[in-house]
């Protein structure tokens, strides 16, 4: 009785395993057929479109007159530059370097000052912790 029960369980297990293999094969074949329908060669998906790289403008006349690479539309030309007095004042006072603002240049009444101070103190504490031997 026990041996027949084991045989029945083994047959059921092998049936489940075979069914899962069959199901996996069907899903794989369906996916490859769909890829072929989409126009891929050999059942592979279509490659994405390559990025278009802009050429570096060498003409000094264009560089002084136009914002080269500023056209965001498919058609049209680059926008022309305006005189300096037509742009807002904050544009000329922007920081261009990517370094963090030194603490001495920040006003203590602003939240940026206190965030920077907190960051510097955390870095100092980590550096001191790394110097401890035990």
Automatic annotation (TrEMBL):
Subcellular location: Mitochondrion
Swiss-Prot/TrEMBL keywords: Mitochondrion, Ribonucleoprotein, Ribosomal protein, Transit peptide
Signal peptide from the UniProt entry: none
GO MF term list: structural constituent of ribosome
Major localisation: mitochondrion
ATP-binding recorded as keyword: no
GO cellular component, one term: mitochondrial large ribosomal subunit
InterPro entries, sorted: Ribosomal_mL54
Pfam families named in the record: Ribosomal_L37
Similarity comment text for this entry: Belongs to the mitochondrion-specific ribosomal protein mL54 family.
The protein's name: Large ribosomal subunit protein mL54
Record organism: Potamilus streckersoni
